[in-house]
Design a protein that fits this description.
- The protein has 23 helices and nine strands.
- It is an alpha/beta fold.
- Among the domains are: 89 residues, Alpha-helical ferredoxin (Fumarate Reductase Iron-sulfur Protein, Chain B, domain 2, Orthogonal Bundle); 104 residues, Rossmann fold, CATH 3.40.50.
- The strands form two sheets. A five-stranded mixed sheet has the order 1-3-2-4-5. It has a four-stranded parallel sheet with strand order 7-6-8-9, with helices on both faces.
- Helix 22 links the parallel strand 8 and strand 9.
- Helix 4 packs across helix 6.
- The N and C termini lie far apart (58 Å).
Length: 399
């Protein structure tokens, strides 16, 4: 049968596409549809476009690429879908196709950023030092506003903060240090190691660290995503538990078995590692301090929709005496979406401001955010609105 997909690359499957019955129950849960009201900005519309490519009626280039680029891959539609449509798998496969169809110059630029910098720890650290120095000297103000709003706050002190290689006693729990987390969220890593020790684990930080490959997978760079997955598997498979304090990374690492399913050398190892992954908020540990305060809770999409995590954050806060406060926005995406706020700054800015206003409306002084992209997006939009609400990982709040 004739198809519009490029041969030799993963593509949305016939069975996955046909699992959607076009009921439209996903529409009010889709952040881009809520902003635009356009069918092409909805999961149902994007799946219809995928079916059109599958049938050979529509090319991958042009409008189809635009429709898939605008998707946040937040997977809110999956939580709402009565037919259990695997939309996350569909959109990632579609993006592999659209990425391959881009002009060579565009692909080279995108690959350089995603694979050449974020995928290599030394380059990520170099980028971190550059950001820390430019922000200390306030040179970053010369950056375009859209790029500045997607940039993490990096401090010279944070870049110099060492992580303990091993601490505590008990089963070995190895911490993923990651890419952006490693340069901008060292306090979160420290709080996570403290929680592991309190929970009866030996907290181990592996030599070299490294990216899990989530950003590459979301952008359609499947080759880079698989290469990074193999690196992390080889590095961490000896641990009894693999602990991840970034919602997007824990969600992605749990898909390693699917990502490397057709690789006979790595498939079984990938499945074994995926089974060991625990998000940091799932670790049962007593709090390190009591905090009698109201804490707003932002549920990261890759917690709420990809992993079903939500009550765990609230239990962690309540155990320390804090009062969790829901935002009242139905868990709407903040607009970060990995590097979505860099590639789609207009839509990201609209959603980021909506999220910041929902947080301000709670009247709290701190908001719990367990994903680095969300934390960057929310902190920058809160500051743009003149708010001094503190953005912290839930384990930092109780450390």
């Amino acid at each position: 049968m004739s198809t519009g997909w490029k041969p030799g690359l993963p593509a949305p499957t016939h069975d996955d596409l046909n699992s959607c019955v076009q009921c439209g129950l996903c529409l009010p849960h889709c952040p881009t549809f809520r902003v635009t009201g356009l069918e092409t900005s909805s999961p149902r519309g994007r799946i219809a476009a995928m079916r059109s490519v599958q049938a050979g009626e529509t090319p991958v280039q042009g409008d189809f690429t635009r429709f898939t680029d605008e998707c946040l891959a937040c997977r809110a539609c999956e939580s709402a879908c009565p037919s259990s449509v695997p939309y996350g798998r569909l959109i990632e496969a579609a993006r592999i196709q659209t990425e391959a169809a881009r002009p060579a110059g565009q692909r080279a630029v995108r690959r350089a950023g995603i694979s050449g910098v974020i995928g290599h720890r030394r380059m990520t650290r170099l980028m971190g030092w550059g950001l820390a120095i430019s922000q200390a000297l306030r040179i970053d103000r010369l950056m375009p506003r859209s790029l500045r709003m997607a940039t993490p706050r990096v401090t010279l002190r944070g870049m110099r903060t060492p992580l303990p290689r091993s601490s505590g006693e008990g089963p070995v729990a190895m911490l993923l240090t990651g890419c952006v987390m490693d340069i901008a969220f060292r306090p979160t890593h420290l709080a996570t190691t403290h929680a592991l020790v309190r929970g009866g684990y030996t907290a181990v930080v592996p030599d070299g660290g490294g990216c899990c490959g989530a950003l590459a997978a979301h952008a359609g760079e499947v080759g880079s995503a698989r290469a990074l997955a193999r690196q992390r598997i080889a590095q961490m498979e000896g641990a009894e538990v693999i602990v991840v304090d970034s919602a997007g990374c824990s969600a992605h690492m749990r898909t390693y078995g699917h990502l490397l399913a057709d690789d006979p050398e790595w498939s079984a190892r990938a499945q074994a590692v995926a089974a060991k992954v625990r998000d940091a908020v799932e670790i049962d540990a007593p709090p390190g301090r009591q905090c009698d305060e109201r804490v707003a809770v932002h549920d990261a999409c890759h917690h709420l929709h990809a992993q079903g995590i939500g009550p765990e954050i609230r239990r962690t806060l309540r155990a320390a005496g804090a009062t969790p406060v829901d935002l009242g926005d139905g868990g709407r995406c903040c607009g970060a979406g990995g590097i979505y706020n860099v590639l789609e700054p207009g839509m990201a800015a609209t959603l980021g401001e909506q999220k910041a206003r929902a947080i301000i409306a709670t009247g709290t002084d701190v908001v719990a955010v367990a994903n680095p992209g969300c934390a960057i997006q929310i902190r920058n939009h809160l500051q743009a609105l003149g708010s001094d609400v503190d953005v912290r990982h839930p384990l930092e709040i109780v450390d």
